[in-house]
């Protein structure tokens, strides 16, 4: 947009104008916090289906239930992947304290074990995707 002979940029959402430097940089537009913009410029987070999480109270946490360490480790692996935590998070003193309080029979795991659990989770999810794509007749990939 040219305003009074000066080249300016304009927000598509709130119509605010910005001065464009001689180099043509658009950094000021990227820093603009538009309240009208509905989308987010941040990275999307990974999500696992809620159906996988909703059964936790019955499977893992119910009173008198046997401690299912494999299920708990799988859930911790999903948490590590979704929130991009470091593998050594499971060696943190407060995490270990939390697990001991929640599950007195809990045996602490190492970052190496967590790495193996995340790798196993990756393989399971990869297998699910392959099975899904076998059933789908076609896939359309687009780029912006």
Q: Average pLDDT across residues?
A: 79
Strand line-up of the largest beta sheet:
1-2-3
Give the strand content: 5-15%
Shape: elongated
Number of strands: 3
Task: Count structural domains.
Answer: 2
Unreliably modeled segments: none
Largest sheet: 3 strands, antiparallel
Distance between the termini: 23 Å
How many helices? The count is 6
Q: What is the chain-wise order of helices and strands?
A: EEEHHHHHH
Structural class: mainly alpha
> What is the share of helical residues?
40-55%
Radius of gyration equals 24 Å
Description:
It is a single chain. The chain has about 140 residues and is mostly helical. The chain has two domains: about 1-30, no CATH class; about 50-135, no CATH class. Helices cover about 45% and strands about 5% of the residues. The protein has helices at about 25-30, 50-55, 55-60, 70-85, 95-100, 110-135; strands spanning about 1-5, 5-10, 15-20. The chain has a three-stranded antiparallel sheet with strand order 1-2-3, with no helix packed on it. α4 (about 70-85) crosses α6 (about 110-135). This is BED-type domain-containing protein. Keywords: Metal-binding, Nucleus, Zinc, Zinc-finger.
Short description:
This protein is mainly alpha-helical and 144 residues long. The chain has helices spanning 27-31, 50-54, 56-59, 69-83, 93-102, 111-135; strands spanning 2-3, 6-10, 17-19. 44% of the residues lie in helices and 7% in strands.
Task: Provide keyphrases for this structure.
about 140 residues, elongated, about 45% helix, 6 helices, three-stranded antiparallel beta sheet, mainly alpha
């Amino acid at each position: 947009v040219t305003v009074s002979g000066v080249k300016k940029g304009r927000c598509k959402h709130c119509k605010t104008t910005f001065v464009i430097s001689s180099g043509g940089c658009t950094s000021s537009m990227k820093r603009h916090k538009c309240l009208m913009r509905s989308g987010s410029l941040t990275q999307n987070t990974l999500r696992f289906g809620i159906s996988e999480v909703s059964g936790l109270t019955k499977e893992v946490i119910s009173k008198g239930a046997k401690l299912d360490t494999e299920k708990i480790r799988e859930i911790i692996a999903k948490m590590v992947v979704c929130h991009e935590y470091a593998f050594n998070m499971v060696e943190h003193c407060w995490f270990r304290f939390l697990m001991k309080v929640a599950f007195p029979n809990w045996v602490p795991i190492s970052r190496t074990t967590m790495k193996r659990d995340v790798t196993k989770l990756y393989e399971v999810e990869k297998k699910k995707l392959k099975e899904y794509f076998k059933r789908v007749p076609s896939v359309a990939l687009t780029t912006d």
